[in-house]
Design goal:
Shape: elongated
CATH class of the largest domain: Alpha Beta
Helix content: 40-55%
Distance between the termini: 48 Å
Radius of gyration: 26 Å
Number of strands: 13
Number of helices: 11
Number of domains: 3
CATH architecture of the largest domain: 3-Layer(aba) Sandwich
CATH superfamily of the largest domain: Periplasmic binding protein-like II
Structural class: alpha/beta
Strand content: 15-25%
């Protein structure tokens, strides 16, 4: 009960109007300009901010007086970050409701890598469909960081998967699952039983590789070259299934993400996980920060994150750790 009493003043002083006021003042640099932009009197705007500051017990602005611009305090900056997200969510809820009222189908467009499409999205969509049977989810191939990022910024995608993406001023990146590089090989190969595998075992070995136009493959090969590791690349492909089939046929080893390797298409295959910094990768799902993210898309993100662990539930290979 005491916890509820401590929260109540914050709840009573925190609403969309107060958040809009704080953002407008922060953007325009003065209470007067913000009041004019929002259609309030300056005194009404000041009251809204004062009520929020009292509820939070924190000053949100440094007010130098005169014509000098007001500045956010550290607490004000934190409130602004959350306020932008909250208002975007409200806009998204309104957009979803408007679509439903007009009888339009709700569509979520997702840029996917091969691994995301084959190993993560099926489980996520199965869970998502239970609560959202009428939503159309469109999966579009986007295997490179540039294509997924460009698609988000142009508005072609609502969400997109990528590797090792970080949040910046344009893109919000949400980590989904670790997907380090592993060595895919046959169970009866000479390297399959190694206790502490490293990429050095690939030196002078036949290798089935991804097309070098893929940044991840080029980075991997450049790193090997600097270390004097020189595998014999006998085939290249840009198709995940073809790569696995070539390895299963005994035509060479390969490097592939752990998520895909853990659910390899052929029982003859296994994988080794080098404990090396160059092997580490993270799959993230991203969205454009300047576009309102619909409530439906946010729900799909939740389903993706919740179901991602399923992609690693298959029997494991051999780790170098």
């Amino acid at each position: 009960m005491s916890q509820l009493r401590s929260i109540q003043p914050i709840k009573s002083g925190l609403g969309l109007r107060e958040l809009q006021a704080v953002l407008a003042i922060a953007e325009l640099g003065s209470f007067r300009a913000a009041a004019a932009a929002l259609g309030f009197t300056q005194s009404a705007l000041s009251h809204q901010v004062s009520a929020l500051e009292a509820a939070l017990g924190q000053s949100l602005f440094d007010r130098p007086g005169g014509r000098a611009a007001v500045r956010l305090t550290p607490a004000g900056e934190a409130v602004c970050r959350r306020a932008r997200r909250a208002l975007r969510e409200v806009e998204a809820v309104a957009a979803d409701a408007e679509q439903a009222a007009r009888g339009e189908s709700v569509r979520v467009r997702v840029g996917v890598t091969q691994t995301a499409a084959a190993e993560i999205m099926p489980a996520a969509l199965r869970a998502f469909r239970d609560d959202h049977p009428g939503v159309e989810v469109v999966l579009v191939a986007a295997d490179e960081l540039e294509s997924s990022r460009d698609g988000l910024l142009r508005g072609d995608f609502d969400l997109a998967f990528s590797y090792n993406s970080e949040t910046d001023e344009y893109i919000e990146a949400i980590a989904v699952v670790e997907d380090p590089w592993v060595i895919l090989t046959r169970r009866d190969s000479a390297i399959a039983s190694l206790d502490r595998p490293e990429f050095t075992v690939l030196d002078q070995q036949d290798l089935v590789a991804w097309a070098r136009r893929w940044r991840g493959q080029a980075t991997l090969e450049d790193g090997w070259a600097r270390r004097g590791i020189a595998p014999k690349i006998v085939y290249r492909t840009d198709d995940n299934l073809a790569l696995q089939r070539l390895v299963a046929a005994g035509l060479g080893h390969a490097c592939i993400g752990r998520v895909a390797a853990s659910r390899a298409v052929d029982p003859a295959l296994t994988w080794l996980e080098p404990d090396e910094a160059t092997a580490r990768r993270t799959i993230a799902v991203c969205y454009a920060r300047h576009r309102p993210l619909t409530a439906t898309a946010r729900t799909l993100i939740t389903a993706i994150r919740a179901q991602a662990a399923w992609a690693l539930s298959a029997p494991t290979g051999r780790s170098g750790r």
